[in-house]
Amino acid sequence: MVKLYERVKIMITKILEKLTNEKSCCKRCLGRAVDPKPDFNEIDYSLRIAEQLPEEILNKSVEPELCDICMGIVEKSIATMEKIIHQLEKREFDSFLVGVKLHNSLQKSDSIWKAYEVIPRYLKVEIAREISLRITERTNKSYQTQLPDITILINAKSTPRFDLQVKSIFILGKYKKLKRGIPQTKWPCTHCKGRGCGECNDSGQQYPYTVEGLVSEPFGRMADTKITSFHGAGREDIDALMLGTGRPFVLELKKPYIRNIDIIKASEEVNRSDKVQITHIQLCEKDIVKKIKAEAPSSFKVYRAKVELLNPANSELIAKLEDLGKNPIPLNQQTPHRVSHRRADKIRNKTIYRVDIISSKENELELRIKAQGGAYIKEFISGDDGRTDPCISSILQNNAICTELDVLEVDDKELF
Ligand SMILES: [Zn+2]
Ligand SMILES: [Zn+2]
Fold first, then answer.
1. Residue 69 CA to ligand 1 centre (angstroms)
2. For the whole model, what pTM was predicted?
3. Ligand 2 centre from 50 Cα, in Å?
4. Where is pLDDT greater, at 38 or 249?
């Protein structure tokens, strides 16, 4: 072993001698070449290892900014440390990662080594290592490659810059909407497009309350951020209630200053409202957002619908509906008129799993409808001028209109 080590040492010394005769090279770059993969964490290890080289090489080393290889970029990046620490001190976090982007003029700098058959510790790795070790020393936070709370992105150029990417906090839960006239997500005022005007009392919002606004306010306040996103597992109409077991959602708190928030206390605050209630609150990771948006073809929803009939109901046909409703009804549904301005015009094949008649008066019905996710229920009732077939209107040979639609259950077996 000793023999091998000595041989390697002689070889690298010869190579570095040749290199320093042909190029200007700083101590750090010499150190990067001698030991590219140290298995321990020591700040400025490259400098210390370079000091152990023979004097004839060491004497030829130059100041970092004169180095042909790194042009002093490592020291320049390290010089931004105080600014990085200052930004980090404003935020609560447990883990971090350092990413480095080399400016175009530096991207080929490590290729110099090829001519000398040396594989060094690469410049990017050296910068990330030196910044990370210093952050750990100063903050006591842990370096973590998987889903760190904060990623510090170093843009390594002649005047290095950095940027903090703060991981969002994701909160999974279910909401119930107990009042009509509340949209799910924030809806900018149609007069001022969100800037604020007389029509919206300078709020910039079309509606005074939204599910998103009511849910996100206490959570956002605790995390010290106003930037939030609300991802629902589908959405009900503004005038529909969301009852029963509630609808799954993920609340995303972006760029939070505080991470350790009391989600139970925040949900209790939400639940003081008479408009929205939330349950099943838990922290989750980002991948749940995709899951909540992807509606499985097998998923279902249960609705309560109030239906108005133009002519008095025919009891024979009501009995027929009751009979048909016991079995799945396949549906051909062309994109409804009311959403055609924002949805592609196509025919969807959906299934109504079950229709139960809760009550029937002369011109009024109350139905419980279990349907495949993505089926349009108001149109299944009216028929939408023949665009949905079959429909309650055609079965009852009447003109049926849905006057009230509430969601009783949203299938969430994949989520909770
Ligand atoms: Zn250098
Ligand atoms: Zn406005």
1. 5
2. 0.85
3. 65
4. 249
